[in-house]
Design a protein that fits this description.
Layout: E1 4-8, H1 10-17, H2 24-39, E2 44-49, H3 50-57, H4 66-76, E3 80-82, H5 86-95, H6 107-118, E4 123-125, H7 135-147, E5 154-156
Parallel strand pairs: 1-2, 1-4, 2-3, 4-5
Helix pairs in contact: 1-2, 3-4, 5-6
Length: about 160
């Protein structure tokens, strides 16, 4: 497992930097994410895409200030940036409805999955159970990815990769 390629999806970073939550489940996820980051991240080759930068550091969260945005960029800079290309965009489209398992509104999630597959990442770390770490969706998406010559990454939480 040493140097396994791990794609860090946006929800991972959101839990990493969020203010401590009073909600038990969210607080547990924050703690698990912080522990993984502090203790395990150096055992893996970390990867992100421009989608993560866009979702985590820009206008989707207009309430973050310049200092916080800079801190977020520094976190992301610990990972290799994987560029998008036509093959990735095409694979992502196949994962979206009407033929794919992801709803059309989940374009960013399809891109995360396609990037990780195209760059042969072994794992995608996420807390996104709606579209990524969802058993029904994973099964169909994995078939599509394999049928187009890629190996699907294992979609999991930081807790599962601890």
């Amino acid at each position: 497992m040493a140097n396994a390629r791990v794609y860090l999806e946006t929800s991972f970073f959101r839990y990493l930097v969020a203010q401590p939550s009073a909600e038990a489940t969210k607080a547990d996820r924050q703690e698990i994410t912080r522990l993984w980051w502090g203790r395990r991240r150096h055992e893996f080759s970390l990867r992100v895409s421009q989608i993560v930068y866009d979702e985590f550091c820009t206008a989707r969260e207009p309430q973050i200030g310049a200092d916080e945005a800079q801190q977020r960029v520094l976190l992301l800079d610990e990972a290799e940036l994987l560029p998008l290309n036509r093959a990735i965009l095409g694979l992502a489209r196949l994962l979206l409805e009407p033929e794919g398992p992801l709803p059309a509104k989940a374009e960013a999630d399809a891109l995360h999955w396609a990037v990780a597959a195209a760059y042969a990442c072994e794992y995608v770390l996420t807390w996104n159970y709606r579209h990524l770490n969802n058993a029904f969706i994973k099964r169909r998406a994995e078939r599509i990815i394999r049928s187009h010559g890629y190996e699907s990454p294992t979609i999991c939480t930081p807790e599962e990769l601890y």
